[in-house]
Amino acid sequence: MCIFIFRQYQYYYFSLHRLLFCSLTSLVWLQGEPNFHLFGFIRCIGATAARALKSVLQGILLSSDGEKLNSMNLLLYMAPVAVVILLPAALLIEDNVVGITIALARKDVNVVWYLLFNSPMAYRVNLSNFLVTKHTSALSL
Predict the structure, then answer these.
(1) pLDDT tens digit string along 13-72?
(2) Are residues 78 and 130 in contact, defined by beta-carbon separation less than 8 angstroms?
(3) Under 8 Å between Cβ of 27 and 19
(4) What spatial distance separates the first Cα and last Cα of the chain, rounded to whole Å?
(5) Distance between CA atoms of 115 and 122, rounded to whole angstroms?
(6) Are 141 and 57 in contact (CB under 8 A)?
(7) Is 140 exposed, middle or buried (0-12, 13-18, 19+ CB in 10 A)?
(8) C-beta separation of 2 from 59 below 8 A
(9) Closest Cα partner for 138 from 64, 43, 46?
């Protein structure tokens, strides 16, 4: 829905009806699920909507004629914001995460290598995400 609001795209009503049918079918199936929790379902829907909003805004920034923002610059601006938001959240939510990581690193040196290789891989994934959004659209993600 974010793409409709921010980009004013016109799509066939048949496509929207298919999307609505799939969503309603999922809801009907979830009614019989014994482990269904409404709060968790609402959080999943909120996370999906936030991801869609991020993708649409990212597509607008990458394709706007006035800004001329490329994928590298967008990554340069978004990465520090992500660190500022996610690092304190991880430290608050996870109990003693730094101590556990240090203890795991002392037991097995491979943990340090995993952490060192994880950063460049995350960089490449985000950069390729931005490139796909720039050359196609936010809907392709």
Answers:
(1) 556 666 677 777 777 766 666 677 788 888 988 988 888 888 888 888 877 777 777 888
(2) no
(3) no
(4) 14
(5) 11
(6) no
(7) exposed
(8) no
(9) 64
d(CA 36, CA 102): 36
Place of tokens 């590298």: 72
Q: Which two tokens stand for residue 28?
A: 């009907």
What are the structure tokens assigned to 44, written together?
């999943």
Which sign, positive or negative, has the C-alpha torsion 20, 26, 32, 35?
negative
**Selection from 17, 16, 38 nearest residue 27 by Cα:** 38
pLDDT tens-digit series, residues 82-123: 889 989 998 999 888 889 989 999 999 999 999 899 988 988
